Amino acid sequence: MRHLILLGTGGTIATTDGPGGRRVGVPTAELLEAANTAWNDSDVRVEVREVRRTVSFAATVADALALAAEVRELSGAADGIVITHGTDTMEEVAFLLGLAHGSGTPVVLTGAQRPYGDPGADGPRNLAAALRWAASGAARGTGVTVAFDDRIWPAVGVRKVGSLALAAFAAPGRGPIAHVDEAGVRPHARPLLPRPLLTGRHDDLPRVDVVPQYLGSDATALHAARRAGARGVVIAGFGVGNATPETTAACLDLLREGVPVAVASRTGEGPVLGLYAGASAELSAAGALFAGDLSPWQARLLLAASVAAESPGGDGGGDLPARVARRCRSWLVEAGALSAACLDGPAASTAPVTQV
Ligand SMILES: NC(=O)C[C@H](N)C(=O)O
After folding, report:
1. 93 CA distance to ligand 1 centroid (A)?
2. pLDDT tens column, 52-82
3. ipTM value of the model?
4. Domain L-asparaginase N-terminal, which positions (predicted)?
5. Which of 96, 109, 124, 247 would suit a FRET pair with 70, their CA atoms being 20 to 30 Å apart?
6. Pair 290, 284: CB distance under 8 Å
7. Rounded distance between C-alpha atoms, residue 43 and residue 294, angstroms
8. What is the pTM of this model?
9. Closest ligand 1 atom to 113 CA
10. 246 C-alpha to ligand 1 centroid (Å)
11. Structural domains of the chain, with CATH
């Protein structure tokens, strides 16, 4: 008999509507009962543990790290771990759990877009799919995944792409690695699993802020982040990773001061690259990390984990941006998010640098 552990953390799947809005309150054992109407396998024993009962927009990095520690502790004791979670930050929590996960035990997050008891509730079906996937041999060695709307998404690259749609998740440019539905569990691909970056116990991560780019944005938010004690910043850049002249200049100052800078794209799909003079090309040449096709939110966690790994308890010193970028790049190459040609620095572009 296979043994799964089901960890309940809250989210819409465990909410009911009421005066003042939705609130978490449904016990995880009740969620399991509802899922069992969609799937019940007498050969699988599910052990339920209540971890937290919150909506995920109120969760913190410290909460996610505590969850990662619990998952690590339980990994040897079960054939699979399923976590019910809010969808708003699921892409970040899945990614962070992946940064800390080193065993073959599958870890599967799921949730719902509609509350418990809704006539069209998606929670029971999503949870049933997550349990089926976790109990199947196919999930072993796939690291951390998200089960939603009959599809299984890899933690690296998964994004919430719908605010209300039942098909709430996608991994643009990557696609689902399996389907789980009436036709059974059907794996199509296996995600590349980098070595865990977060080893040992971490109660929190260094502060890293995301600064978005928008028409005419100046460097005010970047300066505020620095004043607030940010140990790194991620630019959610235009297109292929560009920033306004003011932001670019402020990022170059940060790099000179020893603060790591990562660049991601606000577009939602595709890699970033140092193509444009006075913007991405300059940032890239100055040692900013170009974070492959990671979302700004996943890039933020990668940067924070790398800063933590480089400078436990210290401020790192002058070449911190270079060391952090190197560590992130080798992780991104292992994750298939960056070409191996980028390992020692920015990949040489064959295209001529475009003058802005
Ligand atoms: N669908 C959901 O779960 C959204 C909810 N606000 C949460 O993240 O907890």
Report:
1. 13
2. 999 999 999 999 999 999 999 999 999 999 9
3. 0.97
4. 4-189
5. 124
6. yes
7. 38
8. 0.95
9. 1
10. 36
11. 2-187 (3.40.50.1170), 208-342 (3.40.50.40)
